[in-house]
Amino acid sequence: MGLLRATLGAKWMRQRYVLVVMGMLGMINAFTMRACLNVAITQMTAPPSQPGGENKTSDDSCPFDPPAAGSDSSGSAVQKEYPFNWDSEQQGLILGAFYIGYIFTHIPGGQIADRYGGKHTLGLGILATAICTFLTPAACKLGDVAGAVIVRILMGLGEGVTFPAIFVLLAKWAPERERSLMGTIVLAGPQVGTLVGNALSGFFLDWFVWETTFYVYGGLGLAWWFFWCFLCYSDPNQHPFIGDKELKYLNDNVTGLKEQDNEKEHVKTPWKSILTSMPVLALITTEVGHDWGFYTMVTDLPKYMSDVQHFKISSNGTMSALPFICMWISSMVLSATGDWITSKRVISNTLLRKIFTTIGSVGPGAFLLWASYAGCNKYFVVALFCIGMTTMGAFYPGMRVNALDLSPRHAGTIGALMNGTGALAGVAAPYAIGLIAPNGLMSEWQTVFIINFAIMGITNVAFIIWGSGERQWWDDPHGKPPGHVEDPEDDIKAVKGPAMASTAM
């Protein structure tokens, strides 16, 4: 125990950074497990037949890659056996089923994490997701569409607690001046998870049987859970290995620690104030728009690359991963920039959040729409996707960490509200795309990206008008709403009450 404390409690080992790295790896694991089906499904079921003939090219569809092993001389894919026969609507239902479960555990997850801490809430959520990932091949074989839908719903139920738990952990571990960067490192895990899931899934599917993807990612999730249990804690004051200097620094600079109640009683959630707060409602609205665009890319970009651009599976995973690499890099750079701006007080925190959020809304909508009209110039299309997702990285120092600004005390609950409501887009977007683009035609996908542009742009307006980067009055149990006028009688009663009680004794 002494050796372990000496190692993990060394001056150079900052426990808040251990938590950030492990939190990021946890989110990476969660999203690789979530995203692997998005690529695997292209090899689990036959691609849609083009009107006028099976898998033929036309002005509304791009040519196949040059012939290679597994292709005939015409350049069309050789007929192969697929284990399932799911049409586009069924695929959309399966891909969206995850978010049905995902929605329902956000609020309970936020409440549990707020009350009992984020460590085990996050750990058990990812453990459940890993188990469901292992079971996915068996569920698909035994239950076909119904089996796939059920296991994806259960997987969503497990993963639904992860974001609220992360917000609660950050509220206890992230000092104000490090909040944007620490929050972005952890919350950028989904981009890294998606790019890893897409890239490695393409490799596994090219070289191994399709089931391998699920077993590998499920195993990595179990390994992460084991290390998480021993390395991370919900609260710095509970951590057995933290150094005295870091503990003092965190207690002096983290709002969620400075204002912890001396008594053990749980502070009631001010539901009415939260649900009628315009900054919170604006944040939730913008989250829906962001998630519509993000989940469109996460869930259906591999299908677009396969059905429209006709990338081979060996390159589909890599091409689908590149935009998320760009998004991850930009989120890191912009978050460091945001922290610098915050420390220098160049502009207000509210204006900072609005600028980054607007870049993250308008940029992706415009560039993804342009990509859909770029024709069959495959690598130009990929470049436009990369630029669009680079601008989406601005969301992270924008509205993604905004719950920590508004309410450090109730960050888990607000994070649950925003991410849970945003997950409705995760249900709707894949299913809508399955209905809009049943044939995998370019014109159908252009409609998909027009809708995406409109939703992201319109929801951003709410944040421009009502968004805020300041702590809200109701986050303080003793706070008063703006314009509140103190009643002198209240002060007299407060003084008289104890005096009269002592006299009576």
TrEMBL record:
<feature type="transmembrane region" description="Helical">
    <location>
        <begin position="445"/>
        <end position="466"/>
    </location>
</feature>
<feature type="transmembrane region" description="Helical">
    <location>
        <begin position="121"/>
        <end position="139"/>
    </location>
</feature>
<feature type="transmembrane region" description="Helical">
    <location>
        <begin position="92"/>
        <end position="109"/>
    </location>
</feature>
<feature type="domain" description="Major facilitator superfamily (MFS) profile">
    <location>
        <begin position="18"/>
        <end position="471"/>
    </location>
</feature>
<dbReference type="GO" id="GO:0006820">
    <property type="term" value="P:monoatomic anion transport"/>
</dbReference>
<dbReference type="InterPro" id="IPR011701">
    <property type="entry name" value="MFS"/>
</dbReference>
<feature type="transmembrane region" description="Helical">
    <location>
        <begin position="214"/>
        <end position="233"/>
    </location>
</feature>
<keyword id="KW-1133">Transmembrane helix</keyword>
<dbReference type="Pfam" id="PF07690">
    <property type="entry name" value="MFS_1"/>
</dbReference>
<keyword id="KW-0813">Transport</keyword>
<dbReference type="GO" id="GO:0015293">
    <property type="term" value="F:symporter activity"/>
</dbReference>
<dbReference type="GO" id="GO:0016020">
    <property type="term" value="C:membrane"/>
</dbReference>
<feature type="region of interest" description="Disordered">
    <location>
        <begin position="47"/>
        <end position="76"/>
    </location>
</feature>
<feature type="transmembrane region" description="Helical">
    <location>
        <begin position="17"/>
        <end position="41"/>
    </location>
</feature>
<keyword id="KW-0472">Membrane</keyword>
<protein>
    <submittedName>
        <fullName>Inorganic phosphate cotransporter isoform X4</fullName>
    </submittedName>
</protein>
<dbReference type="InterPro" id="IPR020846">
    <property type="entry name" value="MFS_dom"/>
</dbReference>
<feature type="transmembrane region" description="Helical">
    <location>
        <begin position="355"/>
        <end position="373"/>
    </location>
</feature>
<feature type="transmembrane region" description="Helical">
    <location>
        <begin position="313"/>
        <end position="334"/>
    </location>
</feature>
<dbReference type="InterPro" id="IPR050382">
    <property type="entry name" value="MFS_Na/Anion_cotransporter"/>
</dbReference>
<feature type="transmembrane region" description="Helical">
    <location>
        <begin position="379"/>
        <end position="399"/>
    </location>
</feature>
<feature type="compositionally biased region" description="Low complexity">
    <location>
        <begin position="67"/>
        <end position="76"/>
    </location>
</feature>
<keyword id="KW-0812">Transmembrane</keyword>
<keyword id="KW-0769">Symport</keyword>
<feature type="transmembrane region" description="Helical">
    <location>
        <begin position="145"/>
        <end position="171"/>
    </location>
</feature>
<feature type="transmembrane region" description="Helical">
    <location>
        <begin position="183"/>
        <end position="208"/>
    </location>
</feature>
<dbReference type="InterPro" id="IPR036259">
    <property type="entry name" value="MFS_trans_sf"/>
</dbReference>
<feature type="transmembrane region" description="Helical">
    <location>
        <begin position="411"/>
        <end position="433"/>
    </location>
</feature>
